[in-house]
Specification:
alpha/beta, Aminopeptidase, 2 domains, nine-stranded mixed sheet, 13 helices, 50% helix
């Protein structure tokens, strides 16, 4: 059995190639294609037969007003609290549904650009009569990297990353004050003034920062070391281990998706083909830093989609130290599979303030990636596969 340090070094070698040598990998770019070629070459060297699958995606617009509208709604609610309390009730639900609205808008944009997915499998275990009949657990990681934040100041980056969370809480407080006013409860003027002023300030700041972040961004893209060369590196390190000794009953797939950062387009292209099969997907994203292994329990703030309970049970059995994490504002490649009825879950790591601050910035370089974190994640993935093999997961449909 290869030890964790060796597994981590193996994964880091791939992370370095992708994030430092190839560099930023915008969806559909020559750099993204070079990253796919690198992964395919590694897989072929270990005896796999990777297949590239063309996909289309919708390029992100130069400016989208959606998230800025959340700040404007909060600011307007604060300004109108005294004159029209009902208007102050609208900001919180609008901010809460923004991620779901944004995903719906992205799914409806014209797909005018080209990327690809890369897919490889271990051999079908005996005595399965055909590969399609074998229980299959697919490991998934996206290849592309995101547009980089326009902000270079770390305090500004932190503020922009966290302002939506703060705004939502301010919005619910504003809604509570407005509801009490509408019910005829006379609140002290100081309370109303503080609630309205805070909402106006936070909402205005959020709208301004969001607009500046988009309009000043230019064409710069993050190197994407933690997000998500780390996931790709973990999958490649696991693939190398499994090439010599695959699970006895479980077929393992490796899906490298393109155009995740444009709206999960790579996963969306693959998901319909796997509906109704004895197959599950484990997404591996942002796993290069921090000491805590997380498994995602659900996605969405309003329309909540739980990840697959069976897969989460396997994760808990294999990695009792793992901790659950609900996604409310972010999402990942597991979501399109859930929408199409394919059992899916996800892993990430947490605990590194430096890596979390580097999210979607030029600071997301190999310097924020930790070899021990990679090693722990590769080992966790191998343990999860072994537990799935032992339990007969995924179960027959």
């Amino acid at each position: 059995m290869t030890d964790r340090s060796t597994l981590g070094e193996s994964a880091f070698r791939h992370v370095y190639e992708l994030a430092a040598h190839i560099g930023p990998r915008p969806a559909g770019s020559p750099a993204e294609r070079a990253a796919f070629d690198y992964a395919a070459g590694q897989l072929r060297a270990w005896g796999y037969q990777p297949q590239a699958q063309p996909i289309t995606f919708a390029p992100a617009p130069r400016f989208s007003p959606l998230y800025a509208s959340g700040g404007l709604a909060l600011a307007a609610g604060g300004a109108l609290l005294a004159a029209a309390p009902w208007a102050a009730l609208l900001a919180a639900p609008w901010i809460a549904v923004l991620p779901d609205v944004a995903r719906a808008v992205i799914r409806r944009r014209p797909r005018t650009a080209a990327s690809q997915n890369l897919l490889a499998f271990t051999a079908a275990p005996e005595p399965a009569p055909a590969a399609v009949d074998a229980p299959t657990l697919v490991l998934c990681a996206h290849m592309d990297s995101a547009p980089a934040s326009a902000f270079r100041s770390r305090p500004l980056v932190w503020l922009h990353q966290n302002l939506m969370f703060a705004a939502l809480r301010v919005a619910w407080g504003l809604a509570a004050v407005a509801a009490l006013s509408l019910l005829g409860l006379e609140l002290p003027a100081l309370v109303r003034d503080l609630a309205g002023g805070l909402a106006l300030a936070v909402g205005g700041l959020w709208a301004g920062l969001e607009a500046a972040a988009q309009l000043l961004r230019g064409e710069q893209y993050a190197p994407g070391a933690h997000d998500n060369a780390s996931g790709v590196g973990v999958l490649l390190a696991a693939a190398e281990q499994l090439a010599a000794q695959p699970p006895a009953r479980l077929r393992v797939g490796f899906l490298f998706t393109g155009a995740e950062e444009t709206g999960l387009h790579g996963a969306e292209a693959q998901a319909p083909a796997w509906a109704g099969r004895r197959l599950a997907v484990l997404n591996v994203d942002m796993v290069g830093a921090g000491e805590t292994l997380r498994y995602i329990t659900s996605d969405g703030a309003v329309r909540v989609r739980p990840t697959d309970p069976g897969l989460n049970e396997v994760i808990n059995a294999a990695c009792p130290q793992a901790r659950g994490l609900a996604y409310s504002l972010r999402s990942g490649d597991f979501l399109p599979f859930l929408r199409h009825g394919v059992p899916a879950g996800a892993l990430q790591t947490s605990g590194s303030a430096e890596a979390e601050l580097a999210y979607h910035t030029l600071y997301d370089t190999t310097e924020v990636v930790e070899v021990p974190a990679l090693g722990r994640t590769v080992q966790a993935v191998l343990d999860i596969l072994a537990a799935a093999d032992l339990r007969g997961y995924p179960e027959a449909v």
